[in-house]
Amino acid sequence: MKNDLSDPLTKMDTLGYGSGTGSDFSFAYNNATFSDRILTIQIVPYVKSEGEGCSSTAGDWDRKRKRRREETNKQNVDADLINLSDADVLTQCEDDVLNCTMLDTEDVLAYENQDEEAVAMAEESPSGVEMTTDHPGGGVASKSTDSFTYLNSAAALPVRTIHISSPILAAQSPFFYKLFSNGMKESEQQHVTVQIHASEEAAFMDLLKFMYSNTLSTITPTALLDVLMAADKFEVASCMRHCSRLLLNLPMTCESALLYLDLPSSVSIADAVRPLIDAAKQFLAAHFKDITKFQEEVLNLPLAGIEAVLSNDDLQVASEDAVCDFVLKWARTHYPNLEERREILGSRLCRLIRFPYMTCRKLRKVLTCNDFDPELASKDVLEALFFKAEAPHRQRSLAAEEGNASRSSFVERAYKYRPIKVVEFELPRQQCIVYLDLKREECNNLFPAGRVYSQAFHLGGQGFFLSAHCNMDQQNAFHCFGLFLGMQEKGSVSFAVDYEFAVWTKLTEGYVSKYKGNYTFTGGKAVGYRNLAGLPWTSFMAEDSVYFINGILHLRAVLTILRV
């Protein structure tokens, strides 16, 4: 092949190389006959940081990536250590040697070397790849037929040399395409040098082989992640897709899911990796669906993990009040500094709290909570109150509209304690009207002996709740739907109320009173009616039942204080 490569993609097509066609050119890998350049790979030795173990293999992937993320956030650049993951690109010309050091994949900067000392040269040898080096100390150059050679100078770097085909690499990678076809003198040089970190050597070599064969021999998650990172930095989208598919086919664990979610943003936003990121989020959401069973584990999750768990519409939790309490507990644990905690709550976590489904009592506490930014807290609480004031059909419309959006604050979760609407009056007597809506599916799930509870509400300083049951009628003849009123506080507290239960029907197009009475509560007691509709369960739940309006059962309870 000739070295004048005006357009590697054109030359690739002439030779029959296809981009993204799955063609196998593994026969050309490191084969001088099918190559037009020599790639010298300089290996930067791993430098152990203080307090760190000696290993820098793929097994340390999580630790390395977290360290890189922290360094990125702090904007600490180590100029003495050039890393493949830093994605830095630099082109240097000296005689017929083109030295490329990873600095910035977006730009290729060419400059003339001001140092006139000799540098490592790679030359062809009939028996293999041979490297000749004249080191600054003037010592005798070392020669080897092996593709891996350590230079004699203590300051020099270990290198590997390999024959490459610029059309094949350019077809797979925009990075290499720009490198080989930028129209400058360097793009016509035969020798190319790439400098990478020692821990990334295996991944880079696997990437080069993939660009010829479209296959990978590595199968472990950590090794595939290393190759995925290398493919991202060298812009080999086909390899990123391949790694993502292989990782998706491996069994998902909490550890691997967190690794995928912790990928740098440049990788995680790539279309080729989105299916992997989405699968990791879905796995964590499903695994920690019942958050009450995994409170300690969820509390120890990193930010990306807690976001995946709390984004789940099917999260099994007592109420949104409990979600808010848990978010605050997590934030205080991971961000003890108030300023940092406010920042992370405002930018990442508040959007996961569905304020419209919190109780008014809890919303008032949000307004005075020092952890929240006051302006943001006021905005969220006001939005929640406006939602609560909407008619039910409008609420369902807002939830449906936002269900397709990135934020789902209006979408109701599968709460253990069902949300309610409460209207309170102080005069002429202390009174509250409580509205509870239940879906047909929720009622179906009550059979044969289930219960569902409402969120707590307060009257005269006392906490109450509603509970819907599937139970036997008083004669124990058949199952039926029951509704009960309970008081939370236990002890010697005595509290007398008038109460009335009503249900909306299709026949009247309004609420129909079903049961009323008065009761003096002591803590922990409940009162109600076993058969609210006066029907067997099968009739109550029938498709033509008059009690379900568009699949919703609308219940109302009116409580009035008799004496305190």
UniProtKB/TrEMBL annotation:
One Gene Ontology cellular component annotation held by this UniProt entry: nucleus
Segments for region (Disordered): 51-74
GO biological-process terms attached to the record: response to red light
Domain BTB: 145-220
Pfam hit, one: BACK
Annotated transmembrane regions: none
Name of protein: BTB domain-containing protein
